[in-house]
Amino acid sequence: MNTFSLTSALATVSLVLLLVATSVYVPSVEASDDASFAHLPQGVRDVLAVKRQSHTHTFNSIRDELVSEMRRITRDDTPCVVETHMVTQRVDHFNILDRRTYKQRVHINKQFYQEGGPVFVYIGGEGPEENTTACSGFWYERAQDHNALMIVVEHRFYGKSVVFPLLTTENLRFLTTELALADLVGVVGYVQREYKLQNTPFVSFGGSYPGSLSAYFRTKYPNLVAGATASSAPVEPDITFTQYEEIGRAGASVYYPQCMTNYNASLEAALDLLTTQEGRVQFQQLFNPCVDITGADYEQAVGSLMYLNFPSIGGLMQYYITTIPSRQVGIKVFCAAFNAVSAVSKDPLHALKNFFRLSLHYQDGCLVNNFTETYAGNMDLDAYNEANYRTWFWQKCSMYAYFRTYPGTGDNPQFYRQLCNATFGHDVFADEDYWISYLGGGWNSAGTNIFWNNGKLDGWHGLSVQPGPNNNYQQSYLIANASHCEDMYGSVVEPNEDMKQAHAQNSAAITQWLQQWRQNRATHPFRPDDDDSD
């Protein structure tokens, strides 16, 4: 083994750690100083401290940084004045005896609005929504075309839209898709009253989970929403989401074939070992996991191993933008490091081991796979910590799953069920059949006037509605050489010719929805119950 080559590869490690970390988010507060951590076992608090010191990040935090950067890139030079409203919402819209309320943050941009124009609603998701959201992107450009009033709705439990100060399991019962959609109805009623709007069509927009909400909003409330743009929107709940990594690796292979040849060989060799008892003995001897994976209860130890250590190629490709070099850094850095270790390793398994060593996944000589580490970062109960991952993890556990898995290993639904139960204290796990039924059919969406955009490089497109016959009811476009929510960035990404076509078709659909609404529904405006929004 060439020590010099491995040492030189360390120069890339800081970025690799940032861009391929798959472990849970760890809050920046001192665990021992925060009262909300008092209930945790000492072992969990110790893990929090270690993770904080090593500056571990989740993919979600990386995504938020990328989205923020793209919003800066696409922002119009025209001054953008945004009003921020705090709208009173019920904690539970469906229980008339529960009169508790909370304040939901809503940003409103009247820059392009002219009387008679529509209202465009940008739906927030699993993170804060700042006022800059109202000043950029595809929806902003379309608002200018249609003289639309622009509204950004922050999701309950995220950002400043705090429902309870502590994110206990009991309080998280009110973080559901049903209640989030009811909040949107309340916001629409608020805007109608605040701006004295009558017979005004609303169009919703969203990307990723908010893209799903946009589609659900139209599906559940078609008398309120004229149409919906759903970008990179996963709507098929999937507890064994193997497609994410498969699509990601296939996309990366197009741009970095040698790297993916090396990594796929290492991954497949490792998975082959982990699927048999004899192989797990060999893996234990070579990689030295901290928790033995050869016992009868190996599933949890192997699941933790996969969850904490294996890089997410799907994650690296999720925000890979072919027309913007700065958005290609993650996979480039990963490939530089993995090619370096492959060149000086005697076989694919040793290459993977050396990559783990470079990525600092070893502690005290053993490869981290302690089950406690998989959920420790999700135990922060502070609702005012805007970087808290506990809320989104609750939504994954209780509703959508979306757990990245590798076939044939302990990284399976049973492992994630254990992880969810450890995090929230009792059996919490997604019911795929319920969500498909409630939300309108999953892949076989029952909605109308929905435009589905997906990037071919984005692993999430495997759970979204795929291209089929285009008609007045639904359209779907799979954009070549595009990544997650890339179409939402607007014309800045239109050097991609296929993106131009997607934007053109989406824009035409919006115009058609508005025309249909004015022709067929202007005399039947939706008037939400005042009690649902005041």
- Individual helix count: 20
Q: Give the oligomeric state.
A: single chain
The percentage of residues in β strands lies in 5-15%
Output the helix-strand order.
Answer: HHHHEEEHEHHEHEHHHHHHHEEHHHHEEH
* Rg of Cα set: 24 Å
Main β-sheet description: 8 strands, mixed
Task: Report the span from N to C terminus.
Answer: 68 Å
Tell me, briefly, the overall form.
globular
Give the mean pLDDT: 83
| Class by SSE composition | alpha/beta
Number of strands: 10
- Uncertain segments of ≥5 residues (pLDDT<50)? 1-67, 528-534
Strand order of the largest sheet: 1-2-4-3-5-6-9-10
Task: Give an overview of the whole structure.
This protein has 534 residues and is α/β, with parallel strands linked by helices. The chain has 20 helices and ten strands. Strands 1-2-4-3-5-6-9-10 form an eight-stranded mixed beta sheet, with helices on both faces. A two-stranded antiparallel ribbon has the order 7-8. Strand 7 (362-363) and strand 8 form a beta hairpin. Helix 2 (13-20) crosses helix 14 (329-343) and helix 10 (257-274) packs across helix 14. Residues 1-67 and 528-534 have low confidence and may be disordered.
